[in-house]
Write a structure and sequence with these properties.
2 helices, disordered C terminus
Length: 146
């Protein structure tokens, strides 16, 4: 049996990260340390984008989603934004920190071969949904911590 080999499509990955950068700039234009925006998406879902750290060339954002009272549907990711390169990449998702660009399969953590690419694609879909369907919430303080 021949084992299929997964190769990272670097140009597609960078294109997704560039689009995520543009989407984040539309949602949070200044990206100064401490900036925070919250969006209501649907009737019971809220998304918060917060700048946790800002350096001259990068920012670290925390993006959280709360799905009403259903805690098991809540999610959190951290996103590293590279201002000089114009890209944004998921650094961690849920309780999983750092994932390789490609994995052998099966593996101990049961990551998909293209796990990192899936995280970044999910971020893009999430941000696009916020841009299309989100309503800005004025009271960011009311957003409870996960």
């Amino acid at each position: 049996m021949v084992k299929s080999v997964y190769n990272v499509d670097l140009s597609a990955h960078l294109a997704e990260c560039e689009l995520n950068f543009v989407r984040l700039c539309r949602l949070l234009p200044r990206m100064e340390s401490g900036d925070c925006r919250a969006f209501a998406v649907g009737e019971r879902s809220s998304v918060r984008v917060k700048v946790v750290e800002r350096t001259p060339y990068t920012s670290l954002l925390e993006i959280t989603q709360q799905q009403g009272s259903l805690e098991e549907l809540n999610s959190r990711m951290s996103v590293r934004v590279y201002h000089d390169a114009g890209v944004a990449e998921v650094a961690s998702f849920a309780n999983c920190n750092r994932v390789l660009s490609k994995h052998s399969y099966p593996n101990r953590q049961m990551h998909q071969r293209d796990e990192k690419q899936q995280w970044n694609r999910f971020l893009g879909e999430w941000l696009e949904h916020c841009l299309d369907q989100g309503r800005s919430e004025m009271q960011v303080e009311e957003f409870t911590a996960l």
